[in-house]
Write a structure and sequence with these properties.
The complex is a heterotrimer of chains A (296), B (335) and C (530). Chain A has 296 residues and is mostly helical. Chain A contains 11 helices and no strands. The two termini of chain A are 18 Å apart.
Chain lengths: 296, 335, 530
């Protein structure tokens, strides 16, 4: 770890970036991931301006036009209240992306400080934090999230709260192990002997060294969080109507199988591609940033 | 070793207690009136109050919690509010279905994941490697509920090759349970027709459930194998004229065993939890479906029960893996 | 059952051949020479005890394994004699005397006598669950007397006109079997959860709460069978398939002979399938959106009226593909005493804006909560239609799905009751009191009383009508009640959706009765031709 890390830290920023891009470009699957993520982010950013029927997002009801098969006017057909599926799926990218990023960042914001604290403090405090984390880690995530949302009431915010609650322990584990391993490093010892303050050690050494695995994990987690929110939506515990959330769309579309099978296709493909993109990107980033920890 | 074991079991017990507390808190944050659910839609106030007494919901929360704990200690999971049925009985009925599904999915994951991982490592950075990598990531990225629906559409609705849902056909009376696992029981009864029928029902949900597990086993094996192939002794073996095939079989696979085992342990509990989605899609009468339908109805005792059972599985799996690690890898014993 | 298994073994191949060719395939299930009919719906049967629980699926099975003194039959529903061959009412409306048939037997051979009837009513009242609410306030257990082996007498505390309309739901259990299985004085409650002690046309063969119920026909059923002896099915399976798509597939592949819980969009689809007949009947379950009449913006009657005039009622019909009728009164059309209330609101935006101007929110600009039972697709879609309709008044709608107990808990107090709550109500009998009483002050806070509607006059009329023994006077009271409720607009009166089943064309003996619940049918007359 130390050799690679120091090397990365030592290299000048621009060269590092070029190296990273080169490494990334060399791998087909990473490029695919980057491409997919870019597309999803673009859709999320400019979605409202490119969709064919912007008023179908907030739930326009046009029952005369319901459940139409794909056509020139509606490329992906219409849903059970006559809304354009393409429009809703594109706007769905916005929601899923926001939720995925939100959950991941919130989980990291809770987990990383706790983990670093545990790693640096050691002793009783570490034991307490880690046992608490283990408790949450040993909880069946999806089942717990379902129970939570069912108790709090469905809705995108409650789904996020539930998922953040089951998501943060992973970051404690990661940050703790990094902090722990760095604590033992000679250069930290040296810095400490040289009189560097705790905060300075934290800022200058611990954080930068934890950053690579953190970025990798977060990239993967955004994908997994998108999937988790969609899962809750599928069970019927996600976004409230008329919010166009992918999982909720599939949940409704399921009632129209097999005769209106195209309804369920688009949202599923979008979930798949979004999650695939973030995972491939995460994989690629790991190969570059954190080559030694290439484990399942 | 024994001390270590006892300490681990003690910790697991402590965590289980934490889990009970956690789930109990969750089930009581909802501003809901379980007694109204228990009494039924048309019930008047007198019946609602009767139900409140019947279920002990008139007691203060700490007392309810204490009672739940004592009941749990006696193996009693309480009664479902919505149905009035004992949760323990229901769990006993549904758990074997989930167990069967998870075991089969796990087996599929190992049987396909290990060879594909090896293949990917041997053809590192080649097209086959990229293909398997994308396949592996797909296994994690495919929404299981959606993929399940696709398989149902393709194999049940359009091709008519396999049944859509359930464990057995409506007309088939299940055999007397021996293990509760239909595939095993049908063989024990010597009934191959029943075995085929059970297999045709379980295969689609098992495939869907196995994908993420397959993917992680594949990835672990690939990276282990890549590293193993770089090791000095492999290079030396190769120099001594040992065929690559033998190297893979003997040395490298042996190395891959430990991480695969760890992955199985990690994924076991995880699958018990994610089976919720698969069971919902395939109408599979397991604990996942039980938990979801209860949660949607606002009936929390079954959700509590399922959470505990799944949590217990998490802990046991972790414990077993840790112990096996300790046995197989002496370096870790000190830690 | 080995025969069945071997047939299933062929299934994969057969299904492949016949997937695109419905009509050519294997015949329905056989047990020896007789058929086993398969009915599929989405709801489980967790507790079979007839005095503890009822809902559509549960009662369908209860009706098959148990008998009651009287039975509902047909459309319009009539009450026909069953275990009782006749009954008398005293002129003061207090004493009901039932005379039992002589030949009724429980499945174990015990006779169904007056003591069994007395015991069953007493048990229902004592358990104070399920059906108890129907009679609890008017009948004390000690006032039920077995006069002789074939005569039972009920003496009510005060006249209660709807009494007879509830009797068909009080099933008779075998006291000897029940008490033999009593545990800790539970009156056999635990045992009857998964076991039956009845005298009905079917007996319980297999009980699997979440998967299926298997019933065997009783060949020498005391009442006899409506079909020719050779046509009598050997049994009926109620199969729980939660999702609509697999359920439809099961019907198309003849794994099920009759199914229910279909979406409106399925009707058209299925009626085109050869060999499938869609049963589409006018129901009695009213759908309304209850306003909170005490607290919040909807306490303002002008706002309630504005919403009622802004709502697009045609969307209700469109959502149901035309398989629904709009309500013309708080009562469903199948109910005795129903009138078409003149001037019940229909979409009229000018009137809506007019009422809005007179309300506290002349320009809208508010958000209202619309709560429906989590997972109910129709209620969700109606919420979307409401949201779309109220845009014209610049009123936003927050559509919230919640679990049933959360909804009822919120609705129990005016302070927490949502602005608008979608509620389906199925009248449990044919008596107008069943529906009218939900607008009584005493119903405040119960799930059908979440509007917290207050009109002292209406409450008084309802009480009067309950005790009125002159039918004409009673019906006149109900006409006044209906008109006044519409004028007060405590809810948005929606529609009554049709009841829909799809069956194979060889299924005979299907009878519809609006008094049963959505999905529920009488299994007794069903058989399969061919």
């Amino acid at each position: 770890m130390s050799a690679a890390a120091e090397e990365t830290v030592a290299a000048p920023p621009r060269r590092r970036l070029r190296l990273a891009l080169w490494l990334l470009g060399r791998s087909f699957s990473s490029m695919l991931g980057l491409f997919l993520v870019t597309v999803i982010v673009l859709l999320a950013l400019i979605g409202p301006w490119i969709v064919p029927y912007p008023d179908h997002v907030a739930g326009a009801v046009n029952l005369a036009n319901k459940l139409q098969p794909p056509s020139a006017a509606h490329w992906l057909g219409t849903d059970e209240v006559g809304n354009d599926i393409l429009t809703r799926v594109i706007i769905g990218a916005r929601i899923s992306l926001l939720v995925g990023i939100g959950i991941t960042f919130a989980a990291a914001a809770i987990g990383v400080p706790l983990g670093i604290l545990a790693g640096l403090a050691g002793g009783r405090l570490r034991e307490a934090i880690m046992r608490f984390t283990d408790l949450f880690l040993s909880v069946p995530g999806l089942v717990l999230a379902i129970a939570l949302v069912a108790a709090l009431g469905p809705g995108i915010v409650n789904a996020m709260i539930a998922l953040i609650l089951v998501w943060w322990p992973g970051y404690v584990r990661l940050a703790e192990s990094k902090a722990l391993s760095i604590r033992e490093e000679p250069f930290i010892e040296a810095a400490r002997v040289a009189g560097a303050s705790r905060a300075r050690i934290l800022r200058r050494h611990v954080l930068p060294n934890s950053l690579s695995p953190l970025i990798v994990k977060m990239s993967m987690d955004i994908g997994q969080a998108i999937l988790a929110v969609a899962s809750l939506g599928f069970i019927g515990l996600g976004a409230k109507p008329p919010t166009p959330e992918w999982g909720a769309m599939i949940s409704i579309a399921r009632g129209y199988l097999p005769d209106w099978w195209w309804y369920a296709m688009a949202p599923g493909v979008f979930i798949y591609l979004a999650v695939l993109g973030f995972n491939l990107l995460g994989d690629g980033l790991r190969d570059i940033l954190d080559p030694r920890s290439n484990r399942g | 070793m024994l001390g270590y074991l006892l300490r681990r079991i003690g910790l697991a017990g402590l965590m289980l207690f934490g889990l009970v507390c956690l789930t109990f808190v969750i089930s009581n944050v909802a501003p809901s009136d379980p007694a109204a659910l228990a009494a039924g839609p048309d019930a008047g106030r007198s019946q609602i109050e009767q139900a409140r007494r019947d279920y002990g919901l008139d007691k203060p929360l700490p007392e309810q919690f204490l009672r739940y704990l004592t009941d749990l200690a006696h193996g009693d999971f309480g009664r479902s509010i919505a149905t009035g049925r004992p949760v323990g009985t229901d769990l006993a009925r549904y758990f074997p279905a989930t167990l069967e599904l998870v075991i089969l999915a796990m087996a599929l994951g190992v049987l396909l994941g290990v060879p594909l991982g090896v293949l990917s490592a041997l053809r590192k950075d080649g097209p086959a490697d990229h293909a398997t990598r994308i396949f592996a990531v797909s296994g994690i990225a495919l929404p299981p509920f959606w993929f399940g629906l696709l398989l149902q559409l393709a194999f049940a609705t359009w091709l008519g090759l396999l049944p859509t849902s359930g464990r057995l056909s409506v007309f088939t009376e299940p055999p007397d349970p021996i293990t509760g696992l239909l595939l095993v029981d049908s063989l024990l009864h010597g009934n191959t027709a029943l075995f085929r029928e059970a297999l045709s029902h379980i295969i689609l949900p098992a495939i869907v459930l196995s994908l993420p597990c397959l993917a992680s086993i594949l990835r672990v094996n690939r990276s282990e194998m890549v590293e193993a192939l770089r090791m000095d002794y492999v290079t030396a073996a190769r120099a001594h004229g040992v065929t690559p095939w033998r190297i893979v079989m003997v040395h490298a696979l042996k190395n891959a065993m430990l991480p695969t085992l760890a992955m199985i342990g990690l994924r076991w509990g995880w699958m018990m939890s994610s089976t919720v989605l698969v069971e919902t899609v395939f109408d599979w009468p397991g604990i996942g479906l039980y938990a979801v339908s209860s949660a949607i109805a606002g009936d929390f005792k079954p959700v509590l029960g399922v959470t505990l059972i799944v949590g217990l599985n998490f802990m046991i799996a972790n414990l077993v893996v840790d112990l096996l690690y300790g046995v197989l890898d002496p370096r870790l014993r000190r830690a | 059952m080995t025969q069945d298994i071997s047939r299933r073994g062929l299934m994969a191949g057969a299904a492949l051949l016949t997937a695109g060719m419905p009509g050519i395939g294997m015949a329905f299930e056989r047990d020896g020479n007789r058929k086993v009919l398969v009915f599929s719906g989405n709801q489980q049967v967790p507790v079979l005890d007839p005095h503890v629980r009822y809902d559509w699926s549960t009662r369908m099975i209860q009706q098959s394994v148990y008998d009651a003194l009287l039975k509902y039959d047909g459309d319009p529903p009539r009450i026909v004699p069953w275990l009782a061959e006749r009954y008398e009412v005293s002129p003061d409306g207090l004493t009901y005397t039932f005379h039992l048939v002589g030949n009724a037997k429980f499945h174990n051979g015990d006779p169904v006598d007056a003591e069994a009837v007395r015991f069953s009513f007493e048990r229902g009242l004592k358990l104070n669950a399920g059906i108890a609410w129907m009679l609890k306030d008017f009948l004390k257990p000690e006032n039920i007397v077995a006069v002789d082996a074939r005569t039972v007498r009920f003496t009510l505390d005060r006249p209660f006109a709807p009494f007879i309309s509830y009797v068909p739901w009080w099933y008779v259990v075998n006291p000897r079997q029940v008490m033999a299985n009593q545990e800790n004085g539970d009156l056999g409650r635990k045992w009857l959860t998964e076991n039956a002690a009845g005298s009905g046309p079917y007996r319980l063969r297999r009980f699997d709460a979440n998967t299926l119920m298997h019933l065997d026909a009783v060949p020498d059923y005391w009442k006899g069978w409506p079909m020719a002896d050779g046509d009598r099915p050997s049994g009926i399976i109620y199969r729980i398939i939660r999702e609509a798509a697999p359920r439809k597939a099961a019907l198309q592949r003849r794994e099920a002979d009759i199914i229910t819980n279909l979406t409106p969009d399925d009707i058209e689809q299925l009626s085109r399938v050869p060999g499938v007949v869609v049963e589409n009947h006018k129901g009695s379950t009213t759908f309304g959106i209850k306003f909170n009449c005490q607290q919040g913006p909807t306490a303002d009657i002008n706002l309630r009226k504005a919403i009622a005039y802004a709502f697009d009622y045609d969307s209700l019909l469109a959502i149901h593909n035309g398989a629904a009728v709009l309500m013309t009164s708080p009562f469903p059309a199948s109910m005795a005493g129903h009138i078409d209330v003149p001037g019940i609101p229909r979409k009229d935006l000018d009137k809506a804006r007019d009422f809005l101007r007179r309300s506290r929110f002349p320009n809208g600009g508010i958000e209202l909560e619309y709560v429906h039972v989590q997972g109910l697709e129709d209620a969700r879609r109606i919420g979307l239609a409401l949201l779309d309709s109220l845009r014209a008044l610049d009123i936003r709608v927050n559509i919230v799905g919640q679990p049933w107990p959360t909804m009822t808990s919120r609705g129990s107090k005016p302070e927490t009751s949502p602005n608008m709550m979608s509620v389906y109500v199925t009248p449990v009998g044919t008596d107008p009191d069943t529906v009218a009483y939900q607008y009584h002050r005493a119903s405040w806070g119960l799930y059908y009383g979440t509007a917290h509607y207050e009109n002292a006059e209406v409450s008084r009329w309802i009480d009067e009508a309950r005790g009125e023994t002159d039918n004409a006077k009673r019906m006149a009271l109900y006409a006044r009640i209906q008109a006044q409720i519409v004028a007060d607009q405590p809810e948005l009166f929606g529609m009554v959706a049709n009841r829909i089943w799809a069956r194979r064309d060889y299924v005979q003996g299907f009878t519809f009765s609006p008094v049963r619940f959505t999905g529920e049918i009488d299994l007794y007359p069903l058989w399969a031709r061919g």
